[in-house]
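1st attempt posting a full record on here, be nice pls
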Amino acid sequence: MTQKVIEYPIYRVTMPDAWDISYVLDSTVHAYLSGRDRTDLELCHVVMSWSEDPGDPSEKLIETKNINGFPIQLWVKYWAYIAVTDPDSVSQEDARAMTEMQSGGTVDYDRLVAQIKQGDTSGLTAIDEYLRTHIAITAAPQ
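the predicted structure (as tokens):
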């Protein structure tokens, strides 16, 4: 799998080549990652934050790295969960496409949605694992 690297003053993000930075709020603080062909929907985001709030079932902190004394966090937005709990906010087609991209195809979307409808969100951890494996947050070269 080919990857791309985006560098900021404090950190760099290495991600799958099919992904892109869709929005940056201050080049050192907040970067939204999306699919290159779906920049309107966030796959995950990277933020410099001292917050220890773990998030909620639709958006969760999955990793914090200490980069030169700054906490750089990786957050995920679970589109399958949103499709179940707030179906008017995203189409099933978009939720399926985003879940596919977030998991690299390792998650069966229909099975995951069925689990979530039963109150079981354990299937979301496969997305976390894929993101931790395929997105690297490292110190920017000095």
